[in-house]
Every structure is written in structure tokens, then in C-alpha cells.
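Thread title: Can someone regenerate the structure for this chain?

I was given the following input by a collaborator and told the matching C-alpha cells would be attached. They weren't. Posting the sequence so someone can regenerate them.
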Amino acid sequence: MNLSSNIFSINLPFDKFNIQRIPWTDGKLDELRKTLNQNYSFFRKGEHIYISPGEDNLPLLGELTTFSVDEEPLIVSSLIRHIFFRAFKNQFPQIKPTFNPFTFPSSKEEHNLIIKELPDGLKAAVSYKKLNEIDFKRSEIDGKKKFLLIISSSYKWALRQNCQKLQEQGFDITTLEVAKLVKYENSQEVVAPRFQALGRVLSINDSRAIIETNEGNQDINLKELFLNKTHDNIKLYLEFILGASRAESILAAVKQKEFSRYDPNILSKEIGQLSRIISGLEYKNGDGFTFNISQNSSVAFPALRLESPKYLFDVSSTKTDPSPIKGLAQFGPYDYGKFFEVSHPKVLVVCHKNSSGAFTQFLGRLKDGFNEAPTFTQGILKLYRLHAIDFHFVEVESFNKISFMAAIQQAVESSNKDFDIAVVETKEEFKRNSPTEDIYWLSKSYLLRHGITVQFIKEANARNPKFILDSCALQIYAKLGGTPWILPSSPNIAHELIIGIGSTLIRDNIYAGAQQHKVVGITTFFNADGKYIFSNRSKEVAYQDYFKELLSSLKGSIDTISNEQAWNHGEIVRIIFHVFKPMKDLEVDVVGELIAQYPQYDIKFAFVSFGEHHPYMIFDLDQRGITSRYNNHVKGKLTPVRGTNLMLEPGICLLQLKGPEDVKTDRQGFTGPLLIRIHRRSTFTDATYIVQQVYRLTNISYRTFKPSQLPVTLFYASLITEQLNKLKAVDGWDPSFIKSLRNRKWFI
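Best answer:
Regenerated them for you:
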């Protein structure tokens, strides 16, 4: 592989440096910035204010102090950021960037994706522009601290007219969400203001608006307000000016352009163009602090040697295959004849009478196989070694929620069959309804309440099931409580438990001042071989009580697992926690308190967090992509193979989880790596072991035969969270309904 990235080295030609500083006192920093910001940069660290003169021969404002680069990385990082900002502004005085993060809009016309679609009168008012983003990071390689610059970008909507102008045009902003521009004090207008979401417009009175905010209703001048920069608000405005049909056509054209702009070739090329500009600037202050930025991207980080996972299909650990679908066909599922208890499932089928022909045909193909589906010629009976499968068919006259639910209720409560799973017809347009009106969520709530898991099928897929039969059968088997495959694990003297910790924060809105009201924890539990044990949901509690509730929930689950798996006194137990965001010390303390309650075991633990939204990218310049089997389009261009990784520093790894083969279509754009962090207070810190385990755990979601972008620990937690959030809106729903299903994958 010929790897490149969007990471560029910042090179310092010295080990020690001089900087001015004065003691910090309240108000002094603001005073200095207000009077001297044109020629100096100021920032605070600890009890001192540090001073960076922009040019030579400026008067000395503080005591000149010498520091080591390695001993004061935070001061070095701040100096780099301030000197970069000043050098950029000197070279491009017409651009007004933000400071932290450093962002600025592109001025190229091809980077405004809507401009050619708009009539002349709107070109200055509406834009969808590329926003260049430059971030600064620290790294450590072989014990040596490194400073890095990362280039990335995104596209952002803008509607430049304030709300007074919109009101004068006759555009009604009542009920819409608005924001105001907040300027940075003492910035001398060189830093772009930031948007602050305020709330929703309740009413308009002449030139003023009443805004519903988190601090109560506020009366604000329309000149100070702007619509929130969202796709929905832009769509409403375009519909008002141009009509619904023309607006829809424009937005569809913009979306098509966006697909092409995120082509990996274009991303890599534009990153290189910007790096050449940035690397050509002079970075130097008046005290002699200087650095340069590499023009070429860096991949000079250590990499771990990861093994491609195999799949295990029997408890004796002898039946393995590198392909899950081939292994199933040859050996049958892992739990065949041993743990799986539903070998003769009874299935409730509910569909509209106009779809009944399609559904009976679909069920026949599901049961016995379909020759046109290359990976599903055997059918669910043979592939999953089921003895038989019974279908109880119910046709409905309409998708009216009352009659639809009455038909399901009658089938469940009047039939002498004890259904194991239901197959229910759904439609794409149902998603536009709220959960209280959506047949999908209404029927799911009712059926789960009766201990029946659900598989939803759209009519279009029932009529043309060639590409969905294999994943549909896989999901049905998992929802029946089956384990299609697990991952081979090496003999180990330690018991190992992997716990995924997710949570959902219940808050009123996204506006400034919003309070965090309630939080619910979702935990998933897995063995080292990836075998799903169960999931647990904590009580809905106030945010300040969350960690206490999490501690209680985790302890109850670990007590259950330690008893079931017969952990013995003195044995080594390894517990690896997977969380969505870097854990704060408070959260680590809570888990440490949990571990302390098990002195009878020798417990080692690791806290591992994952980030999908970060600025890092990795490209394989030799990867020309793969031609799709179904058309001539090329997908996966410049995408590194699955398992490519870079250790940015000890305990921090970038792991590519979608290779060219895993990219669905050429319209998918670029798929970046997963960012994995091992918390510094972990007592188990074997990065190779942990990253390899994460790599393996992306192969057992049972939603499809393809790997997932997250380890199953967190993928399951996110699915459970998403579905419980929808279900709680349905009248009569109680989360206790799923307790009887906690060992079954009802949520996939």
C-alpha cells in the first residue's frame, strides 16, 4: 500500500525556547488583548499569562523565560496555534477565520454547490459552501512528542439575510428556530463570529420577535436574528421564493454534487492543494519561536499487525471458515443441536391483502431458498438446520393503525399458537409519522410486550428479495435467540468480559442553556469470543444520579455473570469497557469503585473509547477501486484495506474498518477510520490485544454478513438506545417488557 493521510508534521528546529510571561490577575488578559492584540498574542496557562510578539523589535512586555519543548507541550501547542493564525491572517487579510478550531470558507465557486442552481437574485443570499477545517494535535512516537496539523473539510449551509429582511420579503419565520451572531470580545474583528442557537420564534411584533429560549421568552430585534443554518430552513425559504417543485429540484442537484465532492480522489487532491499553501507560509514570532509545516502528509506512525478473523461454527472449536456465509452452509450455526431451543419456530405474518401474493412467495423463498440469490439457495430451514417452520398468515384491509393493530391483537390473543416471531409488512413512508402514529413502532411495541420479536419487510423487498434474503434469515435466526457463529478464542487463564456502555441523554432541545434532565444507561455484555450474553437498561434518572445508578446496574449484571460462569476465588478476571466517548476521571472512578467490590478476584480492566467523528483520514494512493458486480461503477477508490491502522501515540489508534470490498456503492464517498483510545488509568493496556479484539468484534453483528463500523458491543448499545427512545413514545410501553427477551437480539 502507498498510504497518505491528512496529517502533516509540524517541525520545531530546537529543544528549548524563550517566551515572555507575566503573573495572571483577574481582568489583565482582556486588557492586554483589547489594547495590544494587533501586535501580540496572549494566552493563559496556570497562574501566568504568556505573550507572543508578532514581529521582531517589539517592546518586551514580560519576563523572558526558557522552557523545554518536551516539558511544556501545552505552551508549545498554544504558541503554534497563535503563530499559525497570525501568519495566515497576514497572508490572507480578506479571510475572517474562526480561531479554535481554525476554519474558513473556500472562495472557489466550485466549492459553493448551490450557486449555479440559483437565479441571480438569490446567489448572494443562499450558499452551500465548503468549510476548510485545520486542527492541531499532539502525538508521541518512540517517546518523542510530535506536533501535527490536520486538514479536513465539510459543507455548510448559509442564509445571509437577517430575520428583518426575511420578514420584509413576506417570509413568515414564526415557529422557526433562530440564532444570533456572537462576536468575540477584543478580537478586533479579525475572528469570525460564532452562531449561537437561541430557540423558536413565538410571535412577531413590528421589528421585534418573541423567542422561546431556555432562559424564558426573550424580546429581540429582528436585525439581530438569523435562521438556524439547517437544510430544513433553507428548503422552506427556497420553497417560499421559488415554489416547492423548483426548490426540490435545486436541492436534489446539490445532493448529487455533494456525492461527487466527497469522492476520495477529490478529497485527497484538495487536501494536497491546501497543504502546499500552508507549508509555504513563514511561521515565526518576535522571540525566535519558529516552525515549519511539512508539505507531504505523514503516515510515519507505528502500525499493529492484525490477523483477519475467522468464524467458528461449533463448540469443539474445529469447524472454522474465513467466510460466515460459507461456514454456515458447510457446518450450520454454532449453536445447532446444543443451545438453540426454537428449532420449530411459529411465525405470525401480517401484510396488506394487496401484497399477500408477494409475501407468500417471499416466505416460500425464505423457507426453501431462491436460486437467483447466490448466497441463499438453501433456504432458512437447511442453512440454519431448523426442523420445520410454521407460518400463520393474517391479511389486513388497510394500513389504518386501528384496524391494523386490531388484526395483530386478534391473531396473538385468540390463536392457540405461541408465536416466536412476527413478520410484518412496513412502508418507507411510515417513517414520516411520529411513533404514536407509525404502524412500525405500534406493532413492535405490542408484539414485544407479548414476548414476540419482529422482522419488518417492505413490499418492494418481498417482491424482489434477491439481495435481502440472506440478511433477513440471519436476523430472524438471531431474533429467535440463535448464535449463527462466534469468533475463535485462544486458551486463556483469565476470564474475560467485554462491556459496552451506552447512554441516552434526555434534554429539551439543542438551544443555548439547555439543561441535561434525565439519562438512561444501556449496557451490553459479551464473552471474549464475541458471544452475546445479554443487555441491560438502567433506570431513567437525573444526570447527577447517573453514575450511582450505572454502578448499581453493572454490579447486578456482573454478579449474575460471575455466578453463571463460575468465577473462582483468586482467578484472573479481565473486564474491558467499551464506551462511545473518552471517559472522564469521574466515570473511571465509578468503575474503579465497582472493581473494588470484588476483592476475591484479580481484576484487570481497560477503558476503551471510540470516535467515528474526528478529522483523521487515511488514503491508499495505489487503490484504484473495485468495479461493482451490478454495474460498471467503481467503488472504494483510495480506500485502505480493512485492518489498516496507525498508532498515533501509545494507546491511541486509527483503525480502518471498511475496505474497498465493504463499500456499498461509488456514491458512498470516503469512509474514514475508527479512532480508538485506551484510557491512561487502565490497568490492562495491551494495545495490540485490545485493537485486535475490536477488529474481531466488528464481525458478529448478525444484522448482515458484512462487518460493522463499530464493535458489536457499542453497535448493539446504539441500536437498543435508538429503539427504546422511539418505543417510549408509544402509549402503554414499558421497558420492562424486554426483560424476558434480554438474551435475544430483538433490536437488530
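The mean pLDDT is 89.
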